[in-house]
């Protein structure tokens, strides 16, 4: 493998050191590494390692430099033909993004930091086809600000060379070089001394006299940058006042390991802090972004969540720094050794350079395997319509297949692709953009059509036409097609039956979520593909717990002791709101339960829900907020029973052993309840108050038995649902387990 790594420069800095260590680790694994940058102090290190460096003015946004870099990189890529091109900063990645439009190389980027996204700046950042983030908070930033799908982001670490940065290294040479005293306590601060990075260095200089008064110390500040003149002036005054030089400035250095070995106390952030931890030195984590303090077990979560950069933490101040420095200096040797050893153990366990290299190699292999545009699976379904049930289907499909075949890449056809991408962490394209749909299917290996009721003409013929045409497009491109856990029908029109039969007879496999769908396929003449009855994918999803339900109810100002869930939808010209309101009043009056209405598709179901409540005598509630499908599952799973027209509200309850009453507006409701072996349902077009309250009474009188039967059937359904992802993986070549064996 040959990899070209492109960054602004090779001067001292966290990203630069990251690239230096990554390059060495990749080279040791047989990768031919090339570097392009504006050069700097670390180019000597690259030369020693035998890594070729191309010098290009990638260090700023000057138009002339960017043009020169554009053509320079183009020539390098044409000549060297790297397998992967890896950008490591905004300017290099922007230029690479422009080049990639015509050159089509395998393009990876790493996000080391967060950028200003105001105005036009948002559009001069390119995150490639795979992105490496150096912390979870940067991953979140990429998703929130740039809509990068989470499946395209790999979180790595700032890998540390734990042999180079280790306790017990010799420090006599550096003491002699700087003219330090043997018997002083050494406080070491390391950072780039640009104005945007030098705040804590100034804080340390502010309190240097106070530290000196109490302890025999020498302070060594390592780094260089555009604020160096100010730092030098302040240092001069501090030393002059003390009438003794005890603060030393070294300028930019590459031998950071020697300064870590020198330190009795270390102050800094990011990579420098990690290197000091690797050297088993007590570390105070502080920087321009915020202040965390003395690193120990109680600071671990904050450090990991901010990648040791303190983003979002309380601001640093001279007083806080002084307090922590004195606290460390006043510790006994045993306590200093304990926190130093704890820090090194964290590095050994979580921050080794080996892990960083393996993370990046995994990304390289992934993009080489799939290419820039290639995906394994395209999903076609009723996605992006704010329908809670269909979003549950999508979430379940993605989750279950990914469990069985790690690294599977998806593209979802959606009405709202940005929303789908953000909610589910996958690439998504507009389902009505024929060019994007064509491109997605052309570059996939397998089309999944489903789940849900896609092949039917009960709602409209348009739906059937759309989904069959997507399947036909995939078949025309010789792609495998899997009709995934569908509910089929009704297909009433003869012409529609012919279309559905012709298309479905050409697919590779069909799984169905109920027995009734088998009858529909037989009736319209589908006989060619293998057909298997499994279960709806949503049954495999775990609902949120009761604590989360209580949290939602508090937010919605819902205060029932016990409640039953109601889910309604508008259906043709049928108005059943009077009957539903009377049924809810009956349940509230007789059993003390409060009606909580759940709009499964927002805002479509809101009006009818509010209309029902307005006609009730007892108090009822409707969920007004937007909630994840797991939240709605949790609300149904913690209710006393569910009364619903919406199919997936019935599934959410029954799958958890909660009795349900189906209000059938579509054959799929009856088909599901029949498959669940549950008989409590009625036709919405002939809704009878007396028949429904009779069902309620029967459920309440025989609650434990009904609940137990539903739990058993739910377990059966979950087992059946496992076949869906197994078949999808088989069509792709096997699950991880099959591949390994």
How would you characterize this protein structure?
It is built from 31 helices and 26 strands. It is α/β, with parallel strands linked by helices and 741 residues long. It has four domains: 154 residues, Rossmann fold, CATH 3.40.50.2000; 179 residues, Glycogen Phosphorylase B (Rossmann fold); 161 residues, Rossmann fold (3-Layer(aba) Sandwich); 176 residues, Rossmann fold (3-Layer(aba) Sandwich), CATH 3.40.50. It starts with a strand and ends with a helix. The model has no long low-confidence stretch (mean pLDDT 94).
CATH homology superfamily of the largest domain: Glycogen Phosphorylase B
Q: Give the C-level CATH assignment of the largest domain.
A: Alpha Beta
Supply the CATH architecture of the largest domain.
3-Layer(aba) Sandwich
What's the number of structural domains?
Answer: 4
Tally of DSSP helical segments: 31
Radius of gyration over alpha carbons? Answer: 32 Å
Taking the alpha carbons of the first and last residues, their distance comes to 26 Å
Low-pLDDT residue spans: none
User: For the residues shown, what is the average pLDDT?
Assistant: 94
CATH topology-level fold name of the largest domain: Rossmann fold
How do the strands line up in the largest sheet? 3-2-1-4-5-6-7
Looking at this protein, list some descriptive labels.
single chain; 741 residues; alpha/beta; Rossmann fold; 4 domains; 7-stranded parallel sheet; 31 helices; 47% helix
Helix/strand layout:
Layout: E1 2-6, H1 14-28, E2 32-37, H2 43-49, E3 52-55, H3 63-80, E4 84-87, H4 90-103, E5 107-111, E6 130-133, H5 136-146, E7 153-155, H6 172-178, E8 185-190, H7 199-206, H8 208-214, E9 217-222, H9 228-242, E10 247-251, H10 256-262, E11 265-268, H11 270-278, E12 283-287, E13 290-294, H12 300-305, H13 318-329, H14 333-350, H15 353-370, E14 377-380, H16 388-404, E15 410-414, H17 417-424, E16 427-430, H18 434-442, E17 446-452, H19 461-476, E18 480-486, H20 494-504, E19 509-512, H21 515-524, E20 530-533, H22 546-556, E21 563-567, H23 577-591, E22 594-597, H24 606-614, E23 620-622, H25 629-637, E24 642-644, H26 647-654, E25 660-664, H27 667-675, E26 681-683, H28 689-701, H29 703-721, H30 723-732, H31 736-740
Parallel strand pairs: 1-2, 1-4, 2-3, 4-5, 5-6, 6-7, 8-9, 8-11, 9-10, 11-12, 14-15, 14-17, 15-16, 17-18, 18-19, 19-20, 21-22, 21-24, 22-23, 24-25, 25-26
Antiparallel strand pairs: 12-13
Helix pairs in contact: 1-15, 3-4, 7-9, 7-13, 11-14, 16-30, 19-20, 23-24, 23-28, 25-26
């Amino acid at each position: 493998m040959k990899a070209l790594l492109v960054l602004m420069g090779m001067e001292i800095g966290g990203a630069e050191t990251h690239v230096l260590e990554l390059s060495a680790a990749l080279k040791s694994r047989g990768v031919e590494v090339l570097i392009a940058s504006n050069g700097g102090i670390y180019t000597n290190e690259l030369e020693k390692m035998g890594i070729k460096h191309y010098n290009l003015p990638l260090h700023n946004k000057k138009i002339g430099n960017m043009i020169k870099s554009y053509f320079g990189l183009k020539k390098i890529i044409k000549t060297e033909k790297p397998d992967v091109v890896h950008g490591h900063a905004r300017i290099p990645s922007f230029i690479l993004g422009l080049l990639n439009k015509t050159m089509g190389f395998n393009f990876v980027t790493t996000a080391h930091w967060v950028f200003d996204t105001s105005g036009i700046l948002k559009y001069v950042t390119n995150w490639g086809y795979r992105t490496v983030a150096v912390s979870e908070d940067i991953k979140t930033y990429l998703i929130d600000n740039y809509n990068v799908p989470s499946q395209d982001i790999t979180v790595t670490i700032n890998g540390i060379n734990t042999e180079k940065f280790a306790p017990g290294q010799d420090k006599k040479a550096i003491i002699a070089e700087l003219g330090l005293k043997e018997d002083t306590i050494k406080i070491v601060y390391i950072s780039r001394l640009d104005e945007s990075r030098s705040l804590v260095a100034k804080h340390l200089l502010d309190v240097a006299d106070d530290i000196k008064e109490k302890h025999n110390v020498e302070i060594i500040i390592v780094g260089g940058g555009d604020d160096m003149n100010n730092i030098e002036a302040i240092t001069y005054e501090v030393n002059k006042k003390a009438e003794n030089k005890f603060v030393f400035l070294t300028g930019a250095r590459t031998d950071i390991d020697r300064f870590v070995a020198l330190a009795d106390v270390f102050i800094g952030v990011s990579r420098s802090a990690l290197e000091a931890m690797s050297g088993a030195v007590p570390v105070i984590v502080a920087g321009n972004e915020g202040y965390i303090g003395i690193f120990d077990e109680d600071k671990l979560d904050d450090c990991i969540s901010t990648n040791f950069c303190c983003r979002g933490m309380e601001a640093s101040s001279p007083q806080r720094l002084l307090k922590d420095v004195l606290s460390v200096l006043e510790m006994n040797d045993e306590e200093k050794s304990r926190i130093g050893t704890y820090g090194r153990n964290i590095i050994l366990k979580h921050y080794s350079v080996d892990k960083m290299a393996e993370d990046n190699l995994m990304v390289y292999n992934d993009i080489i395997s799939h290419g820039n545009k290639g995906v394994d699976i395209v999903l076609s379904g009723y996605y992006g319509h704010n329908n809670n049930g269909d979003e549950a289907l999508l979430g379940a499909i993605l989750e279950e297949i990914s469990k069985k075949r790690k690294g599977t890449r998806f593209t979802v056809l959606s009405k709202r692709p940005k929303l789908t991408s953000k909610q589910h962490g996958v690439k998504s394209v507009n389902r009505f953009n024929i060019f994007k749909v064509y491109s997605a299917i052309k570059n996939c290996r397998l089309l999944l059509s489903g789940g849900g009721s896609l092949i039917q003409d009960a709602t409209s013929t348009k739906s059937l036409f759309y989904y069959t045409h997507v399947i036909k497009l995939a078949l025309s491109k010789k792609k495998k097609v899997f009709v995934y856990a569908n509910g089929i029908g009704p297909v009433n029109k003869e012409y529609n039956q012919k279309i559905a039969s012709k298309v479905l007879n050409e697919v590779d496999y069909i799984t169905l979520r109920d027995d009734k769908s088998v009858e529909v396929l037989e009736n319209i003449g589908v006989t060619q593909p293998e057909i298997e009855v499994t279960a709806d994918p949503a049954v495999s999803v775990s609902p949120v717990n009761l604590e989360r339900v209580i949290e939602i109810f508090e937010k919605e100002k819902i205060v029932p002791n016990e409640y039953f869930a109601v889910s309604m939808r508008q259906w043709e010209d049928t108005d059943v709101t009077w009957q539903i309101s009377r049924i809810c009043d009956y349940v509230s009056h007789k059993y003390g339960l409060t009606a909580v209405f759940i709009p499964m598709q927002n805002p479509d179901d809101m009006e009818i829900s509010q209309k029902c409540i307005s006609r009730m005598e007892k108090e009822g509630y409707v969920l007004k907020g937007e909630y994840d499908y797991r939240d709605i599952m949790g609300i149904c799973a913690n209710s006393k029973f569910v009364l619903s027209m919406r199919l997936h509200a019935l599934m959410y309850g029954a799958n958890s052993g909660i009795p349900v009453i189906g209000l059938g507006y579509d054959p799929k409701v009856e088909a599901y309840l029949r498959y669940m072996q549950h008989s409590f349902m009625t036709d919405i077009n002939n809704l009878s108050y007396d028949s429904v309250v009779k069902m309620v009474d029967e459920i309440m009188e025989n609650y434990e038995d009904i609940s137990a039967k539903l739990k058993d059937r739910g377990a059966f359904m979950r087992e059946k649902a496992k076949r869906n992802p197994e078949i999808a993986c088989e069509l792709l070549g096997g699950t991880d387990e099959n591949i390994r064996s």
